[in-house]
Amino acid sequence: MKRRQFLQFSGSVLATIGMSLLPYQKSDRLASARGNKPRKLALLVGINNYNYSDRFVNLKGCITDVELQRQLLIHRYGFHPQDILTLTNAQATRQAIIKSFEEHLIAQAQPADVVVFHFSGHGIRLTDSDCGAVNCFTSTLVPGDSQVNSDGSVSSITQDTLWLLMATLKTENVTFVLDTNYAGWGRDETLPAGAAVQLQVSAEEKAYQQQCLARLGLSPEEFIRRSKAGIPKGVVIAAGGNNQLSAELPFSNFHAGVFTYLMTQHLWQQTGKERVESAIANITRSVVQLSTTDQVPQLAVKPNYPNQEQPTYFLEPQTPPAEAVITKVEGKQVELWLGGLQPKILSAFAEGSLLAIIDQANQEQGLVQLESRQGLVGKGKVLAASPHALQPGALLQERVRGIPKNLTLRIAIDPSLGKDQTRAKQALQGIKGIEVLSLQLGEVDYILSRMTAQHRQELVSSPEATLPPVGSIGLFSPKQKLVPDSFGAPEETIQDAVIRLRAKLKSLLAVRLVKLALNSNSSRLQVATTLTLEGDEQAVIDEAVAIRGMNRNLTPNQATSARLNNTIPTIQPGQPVQFNFTNNESCELYCSILVIGSSAEMVVLFPNQWTAVEDIMRVEAQQTLRVPEVGKDNFHFVTQGPPGVLELLIIASSKPLRNTLQALRRIASSQGTRSGPIAAQEPEDIISSLLEDLDKQEQGNSSIHRLDLTQLAVMSISLEVV
Hey, what domains does the chain have and what are their CATH numbers? Predict the structure, then answer.
């Protein structure tokens, strides 16, 4: 659902406006003079249910957003629970939000304190009579009791009011997080899409702004000048631009804002000293891939203040990175918050998975086995723990990931199939491993749809060389992107279409299975991969690192974070590239490199010597594997069209991958290939063998594959061919 209606830094080149009530440079000295640690205050607002739902459609994920932020602030950034005020649904009226901001934040925050304000809910744009342009719109937050008045005004909270509230705070360490439609900071002169009536700011809002101006001693003219220059304090982190819609999506038994979920999940796993600009860049990369809108998160900073170089929330994390936290202890049973798990992993995070209890020094103090999960809340059994470690607030890191052996590919049926929907469901249910779900009611992997004239018109600007004809049947991603080579002829029946798609669906299921092993944020192996131009290891296109493994012998201050990059690297067709995989362990590892195309086709790049001895997948300790190795290998990895995204998977294991090698040799033999990459026509056999190799169990009688993250790294590099 669209609700809260590449990285930009607002204000960094603008003149200093001097709006702060206390100079930024003095904050730390004043904190020391008080002899107190800076206090951390937060106001978190989330609204699912609106009083006037005929105008503002009820949402599903905003209260989850509030809980995502609350758990993160308490357990990763050291906020005291009593210093976090939450307003949800009926509590979040316009008056209550403003009053809470004044009493909880403005009245209490002192210089050098930290303030966080988060809003998840509807956002709309209103005409702004103070702008001075013919068409000028300001973004606003929609409280739970907002309504459209008889004069065409809306009782919402405008960015002007947010500016004034922010300016009144005594501290410079201020972060606003806005997960709404049109959340980006600044006015806009573009009429909102589909807007038939130009709604306007309410008289109530204007009157409150006059009170704020009087409190600050600002004239209306001076306020307009300063507000146009930029924000008066800290930073504003927005889920999208001021002309963009932001999305909330169904995940695994819950809904959440795409931006808030990915932001908080990233911050749970953040390592080292990461600047907020780097964090938002990396979060943006995930948002762009997952969101069903064109939202691109934005970061606005106070003009001429290097706040983009500060850590997120103006705080370094107070605890080690983690996937989960213990929230309740009852004997040997514990309740867990799983906010640090990646969304794509959470849906398959199965019973039997193991998490390690860690202390502040990042050392293991016990083990918890997951017994059940509902959304982001898990129930677990303590297998072992130091007495002092087993308490609410104890952090958990993934140790063994459980992937169900009966995992399915989730397909939704689009209404465009009309009367064929029932037949489509019956045909799909006849394919092993395929699960049919209702569209909009749950997390899905792909959508079976008929190409309509409207779909085709929307795809005219897409990079596909040719678009399928109207009436043809095929697959879309949840982002409404075509799955290449999945559409047939217009006259094809639904039964024939499903038969034709059977192999494609099997391949997509295999790809989903192997991607569930991705663990670059949680693997303990010391490995890294770079993708470079062939023969030039300095020409790095992209890189993948097992961050926790590479940082395991470093202090928190030495630990590294992901680099600043918010887009998928692009490359022209015909460009030869090379993998460079480095084993920094003190023991040998076994490696495989797979390339997955946009049509789910899979190519095995390494191993590639099919008549060699058993150890062809081995990479010695402290050595670098190069694929292809210039002057030795008889092939080149050359990108080619059509345009699309390639995903490159690098798998490293401390265990020999014997079953995988046997499966690959059978394919090479059937293709008459003695050396070089091979195309996997039926990748499910390879992936099944791979998961069996990676499974840490001595006997394969469990319902899950148990992947030990101390012995396994699965990393990914995405590359867009343009």
Answer: 9-314 (3.40.50.1460), 324-402 (2.40.10.170), 409-505 (no CATH), 527-721 (no CATH)
